[in-house]
Design goal:
seven-stranded mixed beta sheet
Length: 237
């Protein structure tokens, strides 16, 4: 499927989390780091990326108005085609977003709005990998030794660290493939830990694109301290 020689590419940005681990009055994606809300940092990269044709933003249903006023309108984002309500879990939120992309969509990127430091060059590399193979995800090699711990808090095994990668977002797919994966997961009542695992269940290979360690996900208050340091380092370049 090709439209006038151009591959139509959509980005689904998911920012519907409740931030329960933060224990704060405001959801994490609206907290400011480096003078700008977390979500605005993430959206800004996709907004500027020439390959991205549209953004579907998925937020908590109770925060749609707040998001439009304090993020979209305030920072003048033009590529956001739709703002849709999220579900009870991330997988349902992503599915809501996927169902709202433009009918011309051939490739879709799925990104966590709580990852503010994704870069355009990594996005572009992920898109190229997906054009070639159909499915790709951003990831970095594990720096720590990882243990499998069983009953009684006893170490059962020590996987080879050289084969372990920490998966990030965006995760990028041919649209027809990821929709097929989501439809099967829905039919089977299966909930995965990320989007790639749903594609893996169909028997497809997902190719890894090397990311960077700045691309952290804001989950805890400690992450905010790290994020401020990263923002300062980026601004100092």
């Amino acid at each position: 499927m090709n439209f006038k020689g151009h591959t139509f590419i959509s980005a689904v940005i998911v920012a519907a989390g409740k931030s329960t681990r933060m224990n704060m009055d405001i959801n994490k994606q609206y907290l400011e780091i480096g003078g700008m809300p977390v979500l605005a940092h993430a959206l800004n990269v996709f907004e500027k990326c020439m390959e991205i044709d549209e953004i579907i933003l998925v937020v908590n249903s109770e925060e749609i108005s707040y998001c439009k006023n304090n993020i979209i309108d305030k920072y003048g984002f033009k590529k956001i085609a739709k703002v849709v309500p999220g579900g009870d879990e991330r997988q349902f939120s992503v599915y809501n977003g996927l169902k709202q992309v433009n009918g011309k969509c051939e490739i879709v990127l799925i990104h966590d709005g709580a990852r503010p430091f994704i870069t355009e060059d990594i996005i572009l590399e992920g898109i190229e990998k997906t054009k070639e193979f159909g499915a790709a995800c951003i990831a970095v090699p594990m720096k720590d030794t990882v243990k499998v711990v069983g009953n009684g808090d006893v170490i059962e095994s020590s996987p080879d660290r050289n084969k372990l990668w920490a998966v990030q977002t965006p995760q990028i797919f041919r649209y027809e493939l990821i929709m097929k994966a989501y439809e099967k997961a829905c039919k089977d009542g299966y909930t995965g830990t990320d989007d790639t695992v749903l594609v893996e269940r169909l028997g497809y290979n997902v190719h890894v694109v090397l990311g960077n360690y700045y691309n952290i996900k804001i989950t805890t208050k400690e992450d905010l301290v790290i994020a401020e340091a990263i923002a300062e380092a980026i601004q100092a370049k």
